[in-house]
Amino acid sequence: MSTGTRTVTDDDGLVRVLGLGSGVLFVLGSVIGSGIFLTTGMMAAKLPSATLLLVAWASGGVIILTGGLTYAELGSMFPDSGGVYVYLREAFGPLPAFLYGWAAFFVFWSGGIAAVAVGFAEYMRYFTPQFPAPVLAATAITVLGGINYVGVRTGNAANVVLTIAKVAGLAALPAMAIFAAKGTPHWTPVVPPIANPLAAFGAAMIAVLWTNDAWYCVTWIAGEMKRPQRDLPLSLVYGIGLLTLIYVLVNVAYFYALPMNDIAGTLRIAERAATAMVGPAGATFVAVTVIISTFGCDNAAILAGARLLYAMARDGVFIKSCARVHERYRTPHIAIVALVVWSAVLAVSGSYEQLFTYVVFASLLLHMLGAIAVFRLRYTRPDAPRPYRVWGYPIVPAAFIVASAAFVLNTLIEKPMESCAGLGLLALGLPAYWYWRRSATSA
To answer: Helix, strand, coil proportions of the chain in percent (round to 5)?
Structure first.
């Protein structure tokens, strides 16, 4: 129906204003944070081969593309706010859906916002060393919460500007490699001897999947897309394709600029590569790009994450006030505040590495279950309208499920304490679910 100049959904009062371009930029904006600027050096310490590292980055793109194609079918069936939460609810019932939302709020989504904010703070201290990193991280999250509080258009406009800026900054790195670097490239296709190559490749893939995490969050804002049945699948496919291309080209620039001995173990790999190519100005350029990138990433994350909490509250399995839509701004303002507060607490109290591990383990586990929903719904609702059917069914969704299961198992083996802590937090959701369900039934 129409309200003045704003078109809103029939059931929840949110404004449908986002188109295909916004969806593609949302995929890029929510995924590209600090990871691409930091992880390659850590990966190279365990897998010192430019060829295998490029294979890892390309493989990560293929894995999330299989997930994107799978979720595109679900998104075309259920074009509502909440995304994966809705898919799990429709396929498996309210409890698995609630546990997904619970884990997102307390672990992998708020933890991701916090981890990216910590990355923002570390690079912001390049210019403002007098401020503690936790203070800068919490401040950034709070400011972004305010931007999203006052309207989806405001949050989306910020995402568009920041995403274009950070993609341009990333594109400058391959350009530096072509036009500014001196000498010959250091990359060689020869693969050196590596002890336990499969284990090393698996460890590198954990970092790749972390850097690609959040590709699915565009599904959470389907309730504010103009034509979600068409634009959501296209946003996933185009966005993931562009994302993979960007990541591979940026890593080619790293290998062009630096020998493997200088890459392995280097945390700020983008800064070091840019300095090698164009001098000290390169380090300043990268610092500014990372600040823009991480700020934009958390902007998209807050916009999407609040819609997940809103969907849960509307179903009666989260704080009731989070289902409110602001009368003036038409945003789930209470949900935004709740997400911002908890993410800021994690940013102040958690270490980057712990947050990193919590996010990867919980996210892979639950999104694997989300992909299984395709099979479940094909069986239970064979005649339901599907404006888009996943290409390559059943091979494509099965490939995503198998790959996710392999990395869940690898993370559990490599990081057992952090993984078990993530499972423990998931289990804590059970009494909360029963409490909220009882309260909703009584009401």
So the answer is: 75, 0, 20
pLDDT tens-digit map of 203-233: 888 889 888 888 888 887 777 788 888 888 8
| Tokens 């050196």, residue located | 192
| Alpha carbon distance 302, 73 (integer Å) | 25
Please report the domains of the chain, with CATH numbers, ordered by start residue: 9-442 (1.20.1740.10)
d(CA 296, CA 16): 21
Q: What is the predicted pLDDT for the residue at 2?
A: 31
Strand-pair category, 6-7 with 2-3: antiparallel
Query: In 3-state terms, what secondary structure has residue 3?
Result: strand
Cβ within 8 Å of residue 230, ≥6 positions away: 20, 387
Kindly state the tokens that stand for 158.
């910020």
Residue 337: is its pLDDT beyond 90? yes
CA distance 228 to 224: 8
Distance CA 319, CA 321 (A): 6
Burial of 43 (0-12, 13-18, 19+ CB in 10 A): buried
What does the pLDDT look like over 92-112, one tens digit per residue? 999 989 988 888 888 778 888
